[in-house]
Write a structure and sequence with these properties.
The record marks 86 as: Interaction with target DNA. DNA repair enzyme involved in the repair of deaminated bases. Selectively cleaves double-stranded DNA at the second phosphodiester bond 3' to a deoxyinosine leaving behind the intact lesion on the nicked DNA. It holds the Pfam family Endonuclease_5. This is Endonuclease V. With 234 residues, this protein is α+β, with helices and mostly antiparallel strands. It has a single domain (32-233), classed as 2-Layer Sandwich (archaeoglobus fulgidus dsm 4304 fold), CATH 3.30.2170. Helices cover 26% and strands 27% of the residues. The chain has helices spanning 14-25, 91-103, 128-136, 198-207, 217-233, and strands at residues 41-52, 55-66, 72-81, 112-116, 140-144, 165-170, 173-179, 188-194. It has an 8-stranded mixed β-sheet, with helices on both faces. The longest helix is centred in the C-terminal third of the chain and has 17 residues, at 217-233.
């Protein structure tokens, strides 16, 4: 798969991170750039980390499934040393080098990418799902298992019913959504990445839920693959 080189990754200063985010967020579009009937392939993206000999390493795994049959179409992964330390709000700079290396190995071209992480639900609207969209030039969705608090704003728990949700509204703006994908399980936190609206993001995520997890199938499978890869390498 062809990846657009939006910026290089030889960046280690927080001020540079902010400058890049500020430039890219001007180009965010929370509108669908596709027809829902055209969705055929959906990819899940996840990463895992470990330490070895005082160095930190990571693996990115991408699993592509058929949107209608839910069958796996392709799996790829990348492995490498992590050079950027963890700084809240700037996860993309830490993870994107491995993400882009894995993406380059894809033979098929997914229509939608779902990231284990946030998108628009971010203090600068530039979570990993949004940031990655500029390299992919594809619609992206962020799905997080835990809540990233922005400006000390809390969220309202949705009802205990499959498909129920509450919107995360901060200073009058909708940042994301708390979505109950299954009854009697914890909700997930979804947000637009880019080139897609929140209603469509919700519809796609719910269509990819089965009885095995509260997470959409491709993200859950990518998560499982990261654990396999990490166990083999760490």
């Amino acid at each position: 798969m062809e990846i657009k080189e939006v910026h290089n990754f030889n960046i280690y200063e927080e001020s540079e991170f902010i400058n890049i985010q500020n430039q890219l967020k001007k180009k965010i579009s929370l509108k669908n750039t596709f027809s829902k009937n055209s969705i055929k392939l959906v990819a899940g993206v996840d990463l895992a980390y470990w330490e070895k000999e005082n160095k930190q390493y990571g693996t990115c795994c991408i699993v592509v499934i058929d949107y209608n049959t839910k069958q796996v179409v392709e799996k790829v992964n990348s492995v490498g040393e992590i050079k950027v330390p963890y700084i809240p709000g700037f996860l993309a700079f830490r993870e994107l080098p491995l993400v882009t290396e894995a993406l380059k190995k894809l033979v098929v071209e997914p229509d939608i990418f779902i990231f284990d992480g946030n998108g628009y639900l971010h203090f600068n609207h530039m979570g990993i799902a949004t940031h990655a969209s500029f390299f992919l030039n594809k619609p992206t969705i962020g799905v997080a298992k835990s809540y990233l608090r922005v400006n000390e704003a809390d969220f309202q728990m949705p009802q205990n019913e499959e498909g129920s949700f509450t919107d995360i509204i901060i200073n009058g703006e909708v940042y994301g959504r708390v979505l109950r994908t299954r009854e009697d399980v914890k909700p997930i936190f979804i947000s637009c990445g880019n080139y897609i609206d929140l209603e469509t993001s919700t519809e796609i995520v719910l269509n990819l839920i089965n009885n095995e997890s509260r997470l959409p199938i491709p993200v859950r499978l990518a998560d499982l693959e990261t654990h396999i890869s990490r166990s083999a390498l760490s």
